[in-house]
Specification:
Blueprint: E1 7-8, E2 25-30, E3 43-44, E4 47-51, E5 60-68, E6 84-89, E7 95-103, E8 108-114, E9 118-128, E10 131-143, H1 148-165
Parallel strand pairs: 4-10
Antiparallel strand pairs: 1-4, 2-3, 2-5, 5-8, 6-9, 7-8, 9-10
């Protein structure tokens, strides 16, 4: 029996009850190299991708964009000036930073190269008008049989640790 591809998105949201997101640092992702990223292709937050073995090929490029905002919970948060940004692997990862973070006046971008299936966490920092803002982003590529609810809970716990330990 052939199974269909199952893709689950775990999106960081200001309404999330887990409390692991920094409401002043919005992190978005796009499954493409940074030079091919489109203005409309950005998705907010971390993600778990689940599929049948062989569904995913590696390496996979994942572009990141992060913005310091005045209030991410607002319907239209205002982007603030950002002077520098940093993206670094945190803990055991299945990725590398292939393009270091570069910043424009209102946002920073970078690129990850996912090298294998598994889970990865990256620590993200951006210096805005109120100092350094920190967030952590996870990206997981797992087998379709994985208990994604349990995995999400574990990754959100790791995300909390990452956010407070990243310096």
């Amino acid at each position: 029996m052939k199974r269909r591809l199952l893709t689950l998105l775990v999106v960081a949201s200001p309404l999330a009850a887990c409390g692991t997101e920094n409401p002043d640092l919005v992190v978005e992702r796009q499954p493409s190299p940074i030079e091919q990223a489109s203005d409309t292709g950005w998705k907010r937050g971390s993600v778990i991708l689940a599929g049948e073995p062989g569904t995913f090929t590696f390496p996979q490029a994942v572009s990141l964009r992060f913005t310091v905002v005045d209030n991410a919970a607002a319907e239209m948060p205002k982007a603030l000036l950002v002077s520098q940004g940093k993206v670094e692997p945190f803990g055991t990862v299945q990725l590398e930073v292939s393009v270091a973070a570069t910043c424009q006046p209102m946002e920073c971008t970078g690129e990850l190269s996912v090298t294998a299936a598994g889970t990865s966490m990256v620590a993200i920092e951006a210096t805005g008008p109120n100092g350094v803002e920190r967030a952590c982003f996870y990206y997981a590529v797992v087998d379709a049989d994985t208990d994604t609810d349990a995995l999400r809970a574990d990754l959100e716990a790791q995300q909390q640790d990452c956010r407070f330990m990243a310096k």
